[in-house]
């Protein structure tokens, strides 16, 4: 009987097979990573769409958009002061959306007086304190709703979590293409509504949301499908990222010609070797005024650095907060100030925006956004020469990007995004 002989692998053949497997794995891993990011990006888009549906359902219920910087006024001598008795109309549009994005249980806590430390006394009134009194406080009397993390408001691609943030959000209201009156709207320091701030707000706050003002879909004359009502923002990771840790002191907002976007892109502040980060020598970052003041760190706070974006600089551009505006409040700090606040994301090449009709679009960083030397539209604007015109009612000086942020400037969008 003839015995059958079996031939084994040689060492060379084994090494060749291992090398081939290694090459295949090396080719496969980037594809796996890309697939994971694609899934995260789709989940982010779905979360944003839920926010859009919530806004539409809110409008159907109340015939208006949720107010940005709404809430209880109390009797403040200065709305920028902290208070446990009222929120000084500092709440973001996301607070009113809670019942419409599966947040009914949290809304019940917010809409009713809250006994924070279960000692039998009512520590906080309905609609809560000012959002800077989020907690957690060492005495246990913190207002838990303001620092509750809400999954619907988070993009899975953003890894930021935990303190020093008090409840992060990756979605922010669009105020249009100008920073003027972006923090206070038409109110003065005592939350009165005199004619001067009202005129300034009407001239410059041209987005779907206007601080401390009731807005409706009927106000969006350019068409819901042509108007951005909210944008995605990345939250800060504790570094000097220009997108999430705004630079401050980049112009006096009370001086009409100061807040051109070129001030924000000042090369003396940005690291030339890492253009997405501020220089280590630049001390004027917002977190220098408090670790909890970075971008997207307070979902319930309507102040611009937390829950506002505008269409001046294109997506993922540097963010800048102007110096405190004494015309808004004598005690205003940088935290209560407005500025150039483009949307941003951890996705490659752009970010999501929410259109008025509920559609979520991905806008690339390279969208046409005009010239950085142009000044925004405002009440005291004097230029009437396009494309740098900035008198009230002018088309946006920031190109297609600026036009998408205005609700009633009559710009023509002649192609599908």
From TrEMBL:
<feature type="region of interest" description="Disordered">
    <location>
        <begin position="237"/>
        <end position="268"/>
    </location>
</feature>
<feature type="compositionally biased region" description="Polar residues">
    <location>
        <begin position="244"/>
        <end position="268"/>
    </location>
</feature>
<dbReference type="InterPro" id="IPR027558">
    <property type="entry name" value="Pre_pil_HX9DG_C"/>
</dbReference>
<dbReference type="InterPro" id="IPR012902">
    <property type="entry name" value="N_methyl_site"/>
</dbReference>
<dbReference type="Pfam" id="PF07596">
    <property type="entry name" value="SBP_bac_10"/>
</dbReference>
<dbReference type="InterPro" id="IPR045584">
    <property type="entry name" value="Pilin-like"/>
</dbReference>
<feature type="domain" description="DUF1559">
    <location>
        <begin position="33"/>
        <end position="369"/>
    </location>
</feature>
<dbReference type="Pfam" id="PF07963">
    <property type="entry name" value="N_methyl"/>
</dbReference>
<dbReference type="InterPro" id="IPR011453">
    <property type="entry name" value="DUF1559"/>
</dbReference>
<protein>
    <submittedName>
        <fullName>DUF1559 domain-containing protein</fullName>
    </submittedName>
</protein>
């Amino acid at each position: 009987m003839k015995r059958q002989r079996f031939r084994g692998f040689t060492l060379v053949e084994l090494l060749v097979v291992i090398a081939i497997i290694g090459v295949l794995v090396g080719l496969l891993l980037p594809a796996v990573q890309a697939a994971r990011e694609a899934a995260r990006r789709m989940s982010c888009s779905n979360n944003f769409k839920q926010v859009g549906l919530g806004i539409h359902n809110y409008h159907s219920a109340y015939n208006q958009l949720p107010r940005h910087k709404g809430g209880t006024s109390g009797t403040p001598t200065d709305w920028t002061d902290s208070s446990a008795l009222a929120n000084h109309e500092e709440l973001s549009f996301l607070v009113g959306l809670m019942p419409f994005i599966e947040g009914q249980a949290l809304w019940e806590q917010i809409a009713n007086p809250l006994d924070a430390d279960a000692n039998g006394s009512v520590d906080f009134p309905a609609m809560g304190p000012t959002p800077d009194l989020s907690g957690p406080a060492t005495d246990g009397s913190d207002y838990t709703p303001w620092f509750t993390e809400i999954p619907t408001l988070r993009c899975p691609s953003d890894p930021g979590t935990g303190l020093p943030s008090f409840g992060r959000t990756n979605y922010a209201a669009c105020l249009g293409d100008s920073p003027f009156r972006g923090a206070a709207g038409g109110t003065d320091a005592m939350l009165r509504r005199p004619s001067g701030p009202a005129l300034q707000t009407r001239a410059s706050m041209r987005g779907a949301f206007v601080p401390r003002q009731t807005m409706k879909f009927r106000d969006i004359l350019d068409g819901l499908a042509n108007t951005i009502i909210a944008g995605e923002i990345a939250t800060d990771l504790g570094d000097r990222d220009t997108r999430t840790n705004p630079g401050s002191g980049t112009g006096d907002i009370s001086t009409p010609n100061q807040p051109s976007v070129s001030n924000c892109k000042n090369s003396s502040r940005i690291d030339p070797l890492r253009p997405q980060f501020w220089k280590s020598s630049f001390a004027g970052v917002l977190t220098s005024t408090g670790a909890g003041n970075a971008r997207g760190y307070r979902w319930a706070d309507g102040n611009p650095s937390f829950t506002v974006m505008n269409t001046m600089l294109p997506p993922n551009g540097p963010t800048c907060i102007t110096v405190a505006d004494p015309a808004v409040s004598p005690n205003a700090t940088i935290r209560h100030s407005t500025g150039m606040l483009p949307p941003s994301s951890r996705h490659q090449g752009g970010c999501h925006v929410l259109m008025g009709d509920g559609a979520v679009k991905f806008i690339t960083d390279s969208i046409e956004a005009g010239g950085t030397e142009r000044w925004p539209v405002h009440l005291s604007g004097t230029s009437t020469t396009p494309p740098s015109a900035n008198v009230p009612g002018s088309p946006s000086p920031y190109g297609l990007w600026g036009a998408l942020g205005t609700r009633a400037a009559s710009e023509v969008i002649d192609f599908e995004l």
